[in-house]
Amino acid sequence: MKAWKVVSFLYDHGFNYQHIYKDLSISNKINKDSSNNYVNYPETMEEAKEFVQEYRNQARKLEE
User: CB-based contacts of 57: which residues, under 8 Å, 6+ apart?
Assistant: First the structure.
């Protein structure tokens, strides 16, 4: 059940499990090392809160 809370929290903050990049400047350069630039999604709420803060610029825009 904890995993669903993490998923829900991330989704509510604009992360719907698309690729999130460590370095956006190279995110459009597709090559054999592209997956090394992907960020792993968090597994705990503590990690999720940090993730949202660190990668908020890559979140989808939420409708108000």
Answer: 24
Residue-range domain boundaries for the chain: 2-58
Q: What is the pLDDT of residues 8-54, one digit of tens each?
A: 999 999 998 888 988 877 766 666 667 788 999 999 999 999 999 99
Nearest to 22, CA basis, from 60, 54, 64, 59? 54
Each residue of 23-39: b (16+ CB within 10 Å) or e? Answer: eeeeeeeeeeeeeebee
Contacts of residue 19, defined as CB under 8 A and 6 or more positions apart, other chains included, come to 27, 38
**Residue 31: DSSP 8-state:** S
Half-sphere exposure of 15 (CA within 13 A, CB side): 25
